Amino acid sequence: MVRKLREGESESLKDQAKGFAKAWGELIFELGRGCRDIVQQNFVTEDSYVVQKLKGPMAKVSSKLRFFNECLPEDRNPVHAWPVIFFVFLLAFAALNVNTKHGSSVPLVKKVKIHPPSAIRIPLPDGRHIAYRELGVSGDRARFSLIAPHSFLSSRLAGIPGVKELLLREFGVRLVTYDLPGFGESDPHPNRNLNSSALDMLYLANAVGISKFWVLGYSSGAMHAWAALKYIPNHIAGAAMVAPMVNPYESSMTKEEMSRTWEKWVRRRKLMYYLARKFPKFLAYFYRQSFLSGQHEQIDKWLSLSLGKRDKALIEEPRFEEFWNRDVEESVRQGNTKPFMEEAVLQVSNWGFSMADLQVQKKCPGKGILPWLKFMYSQAECELTGFLGPIHIWQGMDDQVVPPSMTDYVARVLSTAIVHKHPDEGHFSYFHFCDECHRQIFSTLFGSPQGPLESTEQTQSKGDMEEVSPNTDSAKKRDD
Fold this sequence. Notes:
Elements: H1 2-44, H2 49-64, H3 78-105, E1 120-123, E2 129-136, E3 144-149, H4 165-171, E4 173-178, H5 194-207, E5 213-218, H6 222-231, E6 236-242, H7 255-262, H8 267-278, H9 283-289, H10 299-302, H11 309-315, H12 318-331, H13 338-348, E7 361-363, H14 369-378, E8 383-385, E9 391-396, H15 404-413, E10 418-422, H16 435-446, H17 462-467
Parallel strand pairs: 3-4, 3-5, 5-6, 6-9, 9-10
Antiparallel strand pairs: 1-2, 2-4, 7-8
Helix pairs in contact: 5-6, 7-15, 8-13
Region (Disordered): 448-480
Organism: Nyssa sinensis
Protein name: AB hydrolase-1 domain-containing protein
C-alpha cells in the first residue's frame, strides 16, 4: 500500500515537470509567432514603412535587371528562384574562399627537420661533452683564432652568417664556434651560469690547441663574450662585439638609457623578459607554442622582434630563410625547454659582474698602516685591473632588437671600448651575408690581410701576434 502511494507521488512529480516544460514551450512558441507577426506587419506588408521607402528604388533596379529572368526556366517564378540562386552563390563563394585559404597556407607551414649528428664533440672535465665546428685555416697555420658563442635560438652553425672561406684564409683566421650547453649537440649543464660559460670556452680552446684567442659576441651571445673578458681575461687577445646585448634590468643604466631600450620592444617581448625574471617556468609554455612546436616561422615571429627597414628586407631573402631554418633545427635538436629557459634567465639576472668591472683601472695599495707596511717591504706597485685588451663594438643605429641605447650605456661605463656606428643598419643587416661588412670587421681587428702562416713563420709565437690589435692605437670611440 505504502509502495503504491510512493509510486503515485513520484509519477505525480514527473507529470508536473512535464506540464511545466510544455507550458514554457507553448509560451516561447507564442512569443516567436508574435515576433513574426510584428516583422510581417512592419517590413513585409504593402503599407509598411520599409516597403513604402524601398518600393520605388527596388522597382527601378528590378526593371533594369529583368532581362536576367530570361535565363530562368519558364516554370520558375523569379521571385522565388533568385533568392535561392543568390543564397547558393554565397555558400559556394564561402566554400571556395575557405578552400583557397587552406590550400595556400599548407605549403607555407614548414616542419622542423632533425638532421643526423655532424658535430665534433670533446669531453669536458666534469664529464659533459661540448660540440664545436671549425672554419677557415687550420690550427697550425692560423695567425688569429676567433671563438664565437652563439645567441638565443641559435647554434654552432651560425658563427658569422655567410662569411666566405676565402676571406678567412685571406686574413689567416681560424673560426671556432660551439653549441652552448643543452643546445645542438652539446650536453646540458646542471648548474649553468656565466662563470661556467667562460670556463667552457676556455676548456674548448685548450682542447683544440688555442692558447690565446679573440672572442666574438653577437646579440645575446655577447653576454658569454663579456663573461670571458671578466673570468678568463689572460686568455683573451681582444673582443669583437656586434650589437651586443646587456642586461635590460642593469641597475647602473640611466633612466633615459633604460627608457630608450624598452620603448623599442613589442609587448610580447617585454612579457618574455618579465616572465624570465619573475616566473621563468611559464616560459616553457610559450616556447612549446613557438619554436619548439615542430614548425618553422620567421625570426621576428618566434622571437617577438620589431625590425627596421633593412632587417625586414633581409629576412625575406631565400638565403636568410635557409640559414635561419637550419640554425633553428640544430638549436632545438634536443627538444628540451630547459636550456632556453636558462639562457633567458641569464639575460635578465645578476651576471655576477658589471660592465664597469671590465674598465681598465689602476689599483694601488689601500690606505692604512698595514697596507703601507706591505708596500714598503714587498715593494708592491700599482697594478692595472679590468680587461686590458682591445674591445670593438659594431652597432646598427636602426637596430630595434638590441637598441643603440645599450651600446651607449656600454660606451659610457667602458670608456676604452671603440664603437663603430652605422646609421642605416639594423640588427641582422650588418652581420648577416654582408661580405663588405665582414671585411671591415676583420680589417679593423687584424689589419692588412697576410694570409695563413707559412712554414717558416710557424716557429714564431702566435700568441704574440694575437695579443696586439693593429687598429687600437687610440682608445677614442670612432664612428664608421
